[in-house]
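Objective 1b. Sequence-to-structure analysis of Vacuolar fusion protein MON1.
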Amino acid sequence: MSYFSPRSPILSPRSPIVEDFLSDSNSILTSDEPLSPTLQPQRKYTLLKAKPTTQLSLGISSPSAYSSSEGSSVKSFNAISNKIESVINGGETSSKEGTVDDFLLGLMNRSTSTSLNDLPTNKHFSGFSNGKSQLSSHRKAIDGDDLENEPNSEGEGLEQDECTENADNTLSEDTLIPLDNEYCGYRRKYGHEDPQSITWVRHRKHFFILSSAGKPIYTRYGDESQISSYMGVIQAIVSFFADSDDTIRCINAGQHKFIFLLKGPLYLVAVSRTNESETQLRDQLNYLYNQILSVLTSTQLTKIFEQRINFDLRRLLGGTEPFLDNLTKSMSDEPGFMLGAIQCVRMSKDLREKVGSIMQSAKSKNLLYAMLITNNKLITLLRPKKHSLHPADLHLVFNMVNGSSTFKSVESWTPICLPKFNNKGFLHAYVCYVASNICLLLISPDKDKFFELSEAKNVIVEQMSTGKILQSVEDALQNEVYSIADVGVPGLRHFIYKSRTHVQYTSPIFVAPYNNPREKQKLFKLYRYTHDRMHSRVRPLKVHYYVSPSETILGWITSSFELYAAFGPLVSKSALTSSSHVLLRWIKREEDNLFIVNSPVF
């Protein structure tokens, strides 16, 4: 029987320190303050109220038997599993995992707290160019193919199509800003797929998000408006167990796993026939839930459904589909979600410190965090001495920046909720590309400080340009990747190393035989399997060997690091152990260049 229970982190996101922080009444952000004229929305949303959903507790491990924490019995479980199997009779998709157990670069304290701001509109951020403000939304195309689809299924590029407004307008015209035609043209890569078609069925993993009333909110493939009947089946299954004072958590039906995550008025479901475990899939659902909270705080979400339980949340989340789509793809391709860590750019310690010093000198009094990022990697992070950013929050920041090309063309000012920092209120992010592939983010608790942070950006860019630091950073980015040949370990093909001390990871580029999408996915599945075995709740392992006809995988966990490495299939255990120690010595020598060891603070 498989019951999900989050592993105890070294520093729990819900520790007393953080609880005091979140409950601090001296709020920096106040919903009562009016927005500045530049950012003032023309209309306000109404807060709607809802009957709370019942939260219960049940675990299911097979289609013929289940185990309940309440000891209640299920009348016709086989009928339910048969019904589910017929609802989605197939599917393939991708894999990924995210475990966020540790805080990054420091502790949080309660010296600062945030409070609820006004409801965000579907016009998610304000972009400023040449001193003028322009409202825009994140309906932008996401490039790239889904590597987890069948190899013979051809990926389609995103297209722009004419906008069709949601017919189910549950809010009146006076209480909701209508969708902007400029961004309604976003068409999702697989949005055209009919749920009755073979292409929709062939995906190996589906994600569904719906309200407790069965209203569709999001689906990874197809159009959520066309699968309302499926959402109704999901809602009925959840209610079936709720009637017996249980909460459904997982159903195994044939090749498929059905993972349920109930978060207040939202139900999140993963339907998968990949090799991912229940815990890994549940972590992915938590990331999707946090992505929604980044746009709409938990307090607002609760209030909305307290007054109208059948509220259609798609109207408030309009324009955020690219970010949900980009997140589902990133969780399949990037090991950081599985490891609960972030990846930093490899560069010299001296250059990184120079960049941090410049950001420190240009800091304004209303700045909370400042960071330079590139391609989902962190260059440097400036933070308060007693505050930190959780890896899960950084993943959301990376996803926001990479999920839309709009940020590359204008200076942008966007509200964002970082759920691990405070899921009840917004921070505000100034986003600007200082070079073609280098993005500067300045995060403030004050919603009216766009121009102050814009001036701080100008100071940073001027100092970096004067000392040719910016050019040095760009040059470093051209040479920041490394290969197995640079490591010089015989027999080693690839590895992922996580520093548990710094909550960061490093990995070389893929080379033969892992230099094509199919082999990359195959290797990542082996890493994922090894990770799951080593973090098992039932029997966690410190060292794990897995030998296949084509490679040998080593998993090794200590108090300070996690190592996942791929060797040839004929390597002996003694040679593998010896090579691993050589690898660890190389990482130790390069530690200052691979990781942010000492984050600049103020």
